[in-house]
Amino acid sequence: MDANIFVLVDALGWEWIRGQPFLQTVAPYRCRLESVLGYSTAAIPSILSGRYPDEHGRLSLFQRALGTSPFASIRWLCEMPPALVENRYVRYFAREMVRRLHHFGGWFHFLGIPLRYLPLLDVSETLDIYQPGGIPGTESIFDILASRRTNYAVYTYHDGSNLELIGQMKADLRKRESSFYFLYLDGVDGFLHRHANDRASAEACLHRYSALIVNLYESARSHYSAVRLHVFGDHGMAPTRKVVNIQKRMDGLRVRAPEDYLCVLDSTMARFWFFSERARQEVMSVFHEEDGGEWLDETSLRSLRAWFEDRRYGQEIYLMPEGTVIVGSGPREIVPGGMHGFHPSTLHSPSAFLSSVDYGNRLSHITDMYGVMAEYA
Ligand SMILES: [Zn+2]
Predict the structure, then answer these.
(1) CATH number for the domain whose boundaries are 2-55+128-239+345-376
(2) What pLDDT sits at residue 109?
């Protein structure tokens, strides 16, 4: 039996490994993979399904509730005075309550979203996307594996730390029960978010991951007659050059959220829904020429395959230029050393693909990973 191994290394940026010996000895074939607009919430479903955000429906974690919000059940809590409820204990309680009530199996946290906005919002990822049926309405590689009754194994953060997952996979390789292995590692993403502005530490981290994957490949080789290794990411990581506090600018306006408008401030995108023309004008005027970003109009969103007729991800979306990160002013606010989620055409947006198999010039976009995985499913 052959072993077909797929390792998704979150934030494995092409710019970071391009000139590096990363996996050179075991996966000499490499290329750049263009990514999609958004974060892992958008990019990973694109990898798993071969589809774009406008097809699988995910662009960012939070969207405007189109029907009943899953947070409607905690409306009473969200509407209490912020001074009473805006603390981490109440937020933790609220999150756990929503998770239990709605059987959310996905990963989500409230980030910096004020509790009082929640009854107007919904979450795009509510199920475990690494399971069959995990992306409702879209066929993913895990649906293919299940329908073909392939013996496969999948390892994600649901089951342990990166090192524990590698350990579990090694133990399973010894048993030779599966032909398809999917391993998701989030350690590089976590490290680069903290240290992308320190090139030497970032390279040391990539070196550690390279060694771990080489070791995993060698262990597969000792138990299987043929091993095909594929290592790829979902997007890159841009070092932080500048931070902006959009919330602070909006605090000075006469219009208020969530009464006059609603907003979700992701790290690189500010997304808005307006309830009056005055709110639209006042809020949009807080962005200046020198911010260097852009309002994504219908034409740009359509060309990025991220246009939603119902504007569930925002009536207006402002995208920051590469390296500029939106931060808040909370006491526990941490400025990240690196961020992703900028325009897919920027230098650090593309991800990388490395393999022991030569696919020629067949791959150029993260959605192309689906076809390669389906071939061995
Ligand atoms: Zn990340």
Answers:
(1) 3.40.720.10
(2) 57
335 Cα to the center of ligand 1, angstroms? 13
User: Which of 72-86, 94-108, 126-140 is predicted most confidently?
Assistant: 126-140
Q: How far is the CA of 144 from the centre of ligand 1 (A)?
A: 27
Give residue 256 CA to ligand 1 midpoint distance, Å: 30
Helix H or strand E encompassing 205: helix 199-221
φ, ψ of residue 170 to 5 degrees: the values are -60, -40
Q: Which CATH code is given to the segment(s) 241-335?
A: 3.30.1360.110
- Supply the pLDDT for residue 102: 65
Helix H or strand E encompassing 355: strand 351-355
Residue 273 has pLDDT above 80, yes or no: yes
Q: Report residue 295 as tokens.
A: 């309002």
> What's the mean pLDDT when you consider all of the chain?
92
| pLDDT for residue 351 is more than 70 | yes
pLDDT at 88 over 80: no
344 CA → ligand 1 middle, Å: 15
Percent of the chain that is helix, strand, coil (3-state, to 5): 35, 20, 45
The domain locations on the chain are 2-55+128-239+345-376, 241-335
How many whole angstroms from 291 Cα to the centroid of ligand 1? 22
Determine the distance separating the centroid of ligand 1 and the alpha carbon of 193, expressed in angstroms.
7
Map tokens 């198999």 to a residue: 357
* 98 has a pLDDT exceeding 90: no
